[in-house]
Amino acid sequence: MTFNTVDSFLTQKRVLALVFLAIAASVYTHSMVFNEWHMPTFGNTMIHVASARHLVEHAYYPIDNDYSYGGGVPNLYVPIYRFLLAETVVLTGLSFDFASRLLVLFFAILLPLGFYLLGRELFGEAVGIASAFFSVIVPELLIYTIRPLPKSLGMVLLPIGFYLLARNLHWHSFLFALLISWVHQEAALFLAASAFAVFCFTAFNDLVLAKKKIGEIKNGIRSRISGISLTAFGVWLVSSVSYLAWHFYAVGDLNLLKLAQFTQHEGNVVNAQLLLDKTGLVVTALSAVGLVALIAVTWFKAQKREAIHKELFLLALAATGLALVKNDLVGLRVFMDRFIVFLHEPMIILAGLGLVVVLN
Q: Measured between alpha carbons, how far is 275 from 268 in angstroms, rounded to an integer?
């Protein structure tokens, strides 16, 4: 999918200027973390500080002591964010409070940059630029990236991980999958589920494009399912195995369903109004336009038996985000409202696509 009219306007200097402007806007909005006497502490932010401080003061990670429950229970959180905060304090000599604020500014830089790279890889410079700007105005995404949390780091790493996957950089994608899986559990779940959906969607497209003659099917499968489909399968495998390995190490079993989040059915049911409130009218409306355009182009190219990997890639992300937000429909009823921010990842790219479609 190309947009010659809009993309022709975007010279290299203009692209650099616009990316810089999007990053500056993100830093400005996230700088509100310095406005309060104390950094935002709702949502258990200080629990992660407690583990990082334990790491600095005692030189070991408190795997058997989860401060979120007053101690005495296994530490379920994957550790990389806490290690990052501890290393920042040790290397700079700053307080945990101020170091946490600096990490928020790091998130602010990565956020529009990751969405720019992903949007550009899928649909060109214009969509990348639009996505970068939209990423700094979505209310829920702003909330989750201005709070010094593992989820905040996971949210800004996901677009970069998807960018590497969209480019079919398999070893880079696998390493990033490992990183995200040990940064935040929910981010790992979204990455793994999305990668599996990408594998299913693109592999099916590969098989449809393969020649139908019985004698050529095997060659067709071998030659067709060799790129992004297999890389996506590898990302799913790496992210799943790496998180389960940590969970087994921390807890001693692989029974995820016995966690309190599942047994207590934490989370609220998401309706259209709640989604609109947490997304904003502009991004919601333009993402709907982008989705219609994406489906139309996908259908048109499929009728011509053309490869539609990039179109299916974004559709797979959107389908995964929607399935997690509405997991109450299959009886899980876990974190439905907290998964909205993960649905925003494909919605922002769709909004960028929708804006460029309108302008073009």
A: 12
H helical segments located in 66-95: 80-92
**CA–CA separation, 107 vs 148, rounded Å?**
9
Confidence band (pLDDT; 50, 70, 90) for 222?
very low
Structure-derived torsion over alpha carbons of residues 71, 54, 111, 200, reported in degrees to the nearest 10:
-50
Q: Which pLDDT tens digit goes with each residue over 28-40?
A: 999 999 887 777 7
Going by C-beta distance under 8 Å and a sequence separation of 6 or more, which residues neighbour residue 253? Answer: none
Residue among 49, 66, 341 at smallest CA distance from 186:
341
Q: Which residue has the tokens 């070991």?
A: 60
